[in-house]
Automatic annotation (TrEMBL):
It is found in: Cell membrane. Belongs to the binding-protein-dependent transport system permease family. Its main location: membrane. The chain crosses the membrane at residues 12-36, 76-95, 107-128, 140-158, 183-208, 240-261. This is Multiple sugar transport system permease protein. GO terms for cellular component: plasma membrane. InterPro entries: MetI-like, MetI-like_sf.
Length: 276
């Protein structure tokens, strides 16, 4: 059997990937081990030492003092409402851009494209004033309005999917007496379900991991999300072990969500990658 020649590039390539993997994995591993240790164990042992014995007191303290259940409720309420409303609004806008011709359509689409390139914080002062004038500041409706009204990338991805649906299906439905909304609901939306599943999961993870918007627009403790709970807990924890446990608690929902639905994410991306 011929031996496979290993080039310098292969060695370098694998080495770079191993280094990047360690950069990502090691901090997570250190945080996980620290969450099961006492403060004395952390001070005496190596950060990579396996915790012996295991202690769950840190997690008990986090759930007791960190207001975790309230944060979980607020975070998942935001995720559910955002995903449902955003999916319908973005798909309807994409349907209109894909199927209808109207004045200034190219200008409108150009403005949407430019909006994806601009960082959101440049309009933060104006957005804050709008939220305050609407009277929804320090309520769950403030971040909800922001999440459902600014996802321009989702509109663009939906449009790519809808462009692949033959217009002859719309014409056949119109001949049978279907309205535009019924065409959208009965023909277009079922076809873009793979895209909806993918975008919903990615949006869910983004909302769960967002700290800036909930902290700025609903700072009250009873409106805390997982990320703002963690930020507020940093100053009260008093030890690295408790803080590590809080970090793991905040990470778990996003990780579970991604692991459960990762196949749908890949399937949705692959479905929209090729235009026939």
């Amino acid at each position: 059997m011929k031996k496979k020649r290993v080039s310098f590039f292969d060695i370098f390539n694998h080495g770079v990937f191993i280094i990047f993997a360690l950069i990502v994995i090691l901090p997570l591993l250190i945080t996980l081990f620290s969450s099961f240790k006492t403060s004395i164990q952390i001070a005496r042992e190596s950060v990579l030492a396996f915790p012996r014995p295991f202690t769950f007191e840190n997690y008990t303290e986090v759930f007791k003092d960190g207001n975790v259940l309230v944060a979980l409720k607020n975070s998942f309420l935001l995720v559910i409402l955002t995903v449902i409303i955003n999916s319908f609004l973005a798909s309807m806008v994409a349907y209109s851009l894909s199927r209808f011709e109207f004045k200034m359509k190219r200008v409108f689409f150009f403005l949407l494209s430019v909006g994806m390139l601009l960082p959101g914080f440049i309009a933060e002062i104006t957005r804050f004033g709008i939220i305050a004038n609407l009277g929804v500041y320090d309520t769950i409706y403030a971040p909800l309005l922001i999440y459902v009204g600014t996802d321009l990338m989702q509109i663009y991805i939906y449009k790519q999917f809808i462009d692949q649906v033959p217009f002859s299906l719309d014409e056949s439905a119109m001949i049978d007496g279907c309205s535009y909304f019924r065409i959208y609901w009965k023909i277009i939306f079922p076809v873009i379900i793979p895209a909806t599943a993918t975008l919903a999961i990615l949006k869910s993870v983004a909302v769960l991991n967002d700290m800036f918007t909930p902290y700025l627009y609903m700072p009250s403790p009873h409106n805390a999300t997982l990320t703002t709970m963690l930020m507020n807990y940093v100053g009260r924890s008093g030890s690295w072990s408790k803080l590590s446990a809080a970090v793991i608690v905040v990470m778990i929902p996003g990780i579970v969500l991604y692991l459960v639905f990762r196949k749908k994410i890949l399937a949705g991306m692959a479905a929209g990658a090729v235009k026939e």
